[in-house]
């Protein structure tokens, strides 16, 4: 498939971008705070899923979902939160990125709620800390955790989730029309020369 020729259509400056998009309302700018207040703490305590964005030293990005029982992300004080790292596929994309570039973005989701909570900050990986013992699940404490020093926190408007109908079961596609994760997995292995 041919790639689009976008060379004559690029937006090349912040000034050009503002000319196209406009300027945000003052309230949209001022809704961002540099701490976890009681409202944000309540939201995070009821969220069973967070998407963690990170990038390596070259700016190559990754977004990884983390999910568990509501409240699995621990808020400490007003400026720190901890995400337990449960056993997974051992790729360590997010963790490797954090070691190379500590900036991370978090997107918290609550099922049925169309507003999401965004948190940005500096991330660290911890081990052997007593707080990890307190985050045990079914008797097993995480070996490591991700600590985020909060620099920015705000609620994001519902437009994207509302427009997508993500929580409206009547708008969901029939399960038999969905791509199979197994088929996708095997197809990608074959592309890379792995014998399935």
The CATH superfamily name is Electron Transport, Fmn-binding Protein, Chain A
Order of the strands making up the biggest sheet:
2-1-5-6-7-4-3
Number of helices: 7
Instruction: Report the order of strands and helices.
Output: HHHEEEEHEEHEHH
Rounded Rg: 20 Å
Going by CATH, the architecture would be Roll
Distance between the termini: 26 Å
CATH class: Mainly Beta
Descriptors for this entry?
Pnp Oxidase, Chain A; seven-stranded antiparallel β-sheet
Structural description of this entry:
The chain has a single domain (25-167), classed as Electron Transport, Fmn-binding Protein, Chain A (Pnp Oxidase, Chain A), CATH 2.30.110.10. It is of the alpha+beta class. The model has no long low-confidence stretch (mean pLDDT 95). The chain starts with 13 loop residues before the first helix and ends in a 5-residue tail after the last helix. It contains 7 helices and 7 strands; from the N terminus they run H-H-H-E-E-E-E-H-E-E-H-E-H-H.
Concise summary:
The protein has seven helices and seven strands.
């Amino acid at each position: 498939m041919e790639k689009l020729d976008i060379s004559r259509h690029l937006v090349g400056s912040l000034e050009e971008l503002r000319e196209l998009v406009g300027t945000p309302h003052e309230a949209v700018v001022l809704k961002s705070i540099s701490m976890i207040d009681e409202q944000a703490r309540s939201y995070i305590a009821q969220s069973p899923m967070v998407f963690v964005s990170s990038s390596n030293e070259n700016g190559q990005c990754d977004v990884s979902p983390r999910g568990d029982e509501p409240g699995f992300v621990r808020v400490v004080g007003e400026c720190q939160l901890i995400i337990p790292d449960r056993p997974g596929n051992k790729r360590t994309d997010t963790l490797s990125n954090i070691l190379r570039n500590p900036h991370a973005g978090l997107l918290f989701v609550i099922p049925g709620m169309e507003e999401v909570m965004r948190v940005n900050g500096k991330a660290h990986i911890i081990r052997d800390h007593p707080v990890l013992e307190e985050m045990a699940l079914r008797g097993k404490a995480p070996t490591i955790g991700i600590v985020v020093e909060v620099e920015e926190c705000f609620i994001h408007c519902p437009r994207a989730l509302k427009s997508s109908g993500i929580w409206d079961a009547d708008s969901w596609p029939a399960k038999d029309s969905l791509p199979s994760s197994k088929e996708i997995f095997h197809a990608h292995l074959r592309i890379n020369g792995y014998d399935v």
